[in-house]
Design a protein that fits this description.
The chain is α/β, with parallel strands linked by helices. It is built from 8 helices and 7 strands. It is an enzyme of class 2 (transferase). InterPro entries: Glyco_trans_2-like, Glycosyltransferase_2, Nucleotide-diphossugar_trans.
């Protein structure tokens, strides 16, 4: 297998507090993958600014000058997390053999990205990042998450427990996903049903190192409707 071209897609909404550190960490991981010939030297970090009202876009433009791996995409207004992911995949799909999506706060452990790539090279089209516990959450967060999964099950949405939007997708999986024409997709409900070879990769979710969560229970439920 030739070294696949990877695009790491990072949706951003008012993430000025975390972007400099997150970009530094992700660039280090991507550069290491390139140096070890696990991915193509043309691989990129794509930061998608989802209509931020802070200095997120200004920081992305600065990061483009600081890191050769970084590129940016800016929305004119806030279209939502799932649409930011879809736009990133649409931009990446013509050239990227694989994409990985990860939120800007890096609570999903970016150190497992090399293992995601290894799983792809071993034959998986989809690698789902699944947190192995919720010990880093508050009691209230655990309670609301449990309620969310019970609600989704009752309305017939089959989800992989503790999998959010940290995942690897092959080019053919991305192209299949992009055939969905709905404007409000709930990706974590669709991706597991695409039908391609899939594995789960378990990891420990980290506390957020700066800023605040953009996705309370209200927004999570809204994703589905």
């Amino acid at each position: 297998m030739q070294n696949p071209r990877l695009t790491i897609i990072v949706p951003c909404y008012n993430e000025e507090a975390v972007l400099p550190k997150s970009a530094h960490i992700l660039d280090g991981i991507l550069t290491d993958l390139i140096q070890h010939k696990q991915v193509n030297a043309a691989s990129k970090l794509l930061f998608v600014d989802d209509g931020s009202q802070d200095k997120t876009w200004k920081l992305i433009k600065s990061l483009e000058k600081q890191y050769s791996t970084v590129t940016g995409l800016k929305f004119s207004r806030n279209f939502g997390h799932q649409n930011a992911l879809m736009a990133g995949m649409q931009v990446a799909s013509p050239t990227a053999e694989i994409v990985i999506t990860i939120d800007a706060d890096l609570q999903d452990d970016p150190q497992v990205i090399p293992e995601m790539v290894a799983r792809y090279r071993a034959g998986s089209d989809i690698v789902l990042g699944v947190r192995n516990d919720r010990s880093s959450d508050s009691l209230f967060k655990r309670w609301t998450a449990d309620g969310f999964y019970r609600l989704m099950k009752r309305i017939g949405v089959q989800l992989v427990p503790n999998h959010a939007d940290f995942r690897l997708l092959s080019q053919r999986a991305v192209q299949a996903l992009l055939t969905y024409e709905e404007t409000n997709l709930f990706l974590r409900g669709i991706v597991p049903r695409l039908g391609f070879p899939t594995t789960k990769l378990y990891y420990h979710r980290q506390p957020r190192f700066a800023g605040v969560s953009k996705y309370p229970l209200r927004k999570m439920v809204a994703f589905c409707f």
